[in-house]
Automatic annotation (TrEMBL):
It comes from the Eukaryota. PANTHER family: KERATIN, ULTRA HIGH-SULFUR MATRIX PROTEIN-LIKE, MYB_SANT-LIKE DNA-BINDING DOMAIN-CONTAINING PROTEIN. Residues 148-180 form a coiled coil. This is Uncharacterized protein. The keyword Coiled coil applies. The keyword Coiled coil applies. Residues 83-138 are annotated as: Disordered. Residues 83-93, 101-112, 125-138 have a biased composition (Basic and acidic residues). The lineage of its organism: Eukaryota, Metazoa, Cnidaria, Anthozoa, Hexacorallia. Keywords: Coiled coil.
Length: 199
């Protein structure tokens, strides 16, 4: 009851850590000596709760029986109430997050639809809202042809520049190779002279 493992969802890391702390407390020497694991504590509580629920169902079915509630029954009832309250709280939070996500999704969908609408519909809607925007003239097909010609000319110039640049790089590379061959030949000649001079 003190640790309240029901604050966290089932099979979560936090809930497992709380069951572990409960097992450590039960294994501590200051209380009665138990040797339990977190899983055994959790399983034992689940078993006790199911037996308690079965007992309550039997008492409700049997008419006229007034059973006295023990401390264990009261504790199990309190645990069950806390678990239900925690589940309700988690469900409320989840539903709030889902509502927020849904509202964000609908607003994003609305924006997407507005973008996809045809220009005339958008202008009509804006006129209905009192927002007048400057109308744009419709481009003629000759404008499109002119644009394509300009683009083709730019690409042609760019290709010419690339070819010229590659030609210069090739020429520079060729000159470097010739220079290296010349240096190599000079080094060989120098080595031959040194070899002849030392003998």
């Amino acid at each position: 009851l003190v640790f309240e493992p029901f604050k966290y969802p089932k099979r979560s890391k936090e809930r497992g850590e709380i069951w572990g702390r409960i097992a450590v407390n039960l294994n501590s020497p200051r209380s009665q000596k138990f040797t339990v694991l977190k899983r055994s504590v959790r399983d034992r509580l689940t078993l006790m709760q199911s037996k308690y629920k079965e007992k309550i169902r039997e008492e409700e079915r049997a008419s006229g029986i007034d059973c006295q509630e023990t401390q264990l029954d009261a504790a199990l009832e309190e645990i069950a109430e806390k678990e239900r309250a925690a589940d309700l709280e988690r469900n409320d939070k989840t539903s709030a997050v889902n509502k927020k996500n849904k509202s964000e999704k609908t607003s994003a969908e609305e924006v997407r639809l507005q973008v996809m609408e045809r220009l005339s519909k958008t202008q009509k809607r804006n006129a209905d809202l009192g927002e007048e925007k400057s109308s744009k003239y419709r481009k003629r097909s000759s404008d499109a042809v002119e644009y394509l010609k300009e683009k083709f000319q730019e690409e042609k110039e760019l290709r010419k520049e690339e070819i010229e640049l590659k030609r210069k790089e090739h020429q520079t590379h060729k000159q470097q190779l010739e220079m290296m061959n010349l240096i190599h030949k000079q080094n060989e000649a120098l080595m031959d002279l040194l070899a002849k001079a030392t003998f």
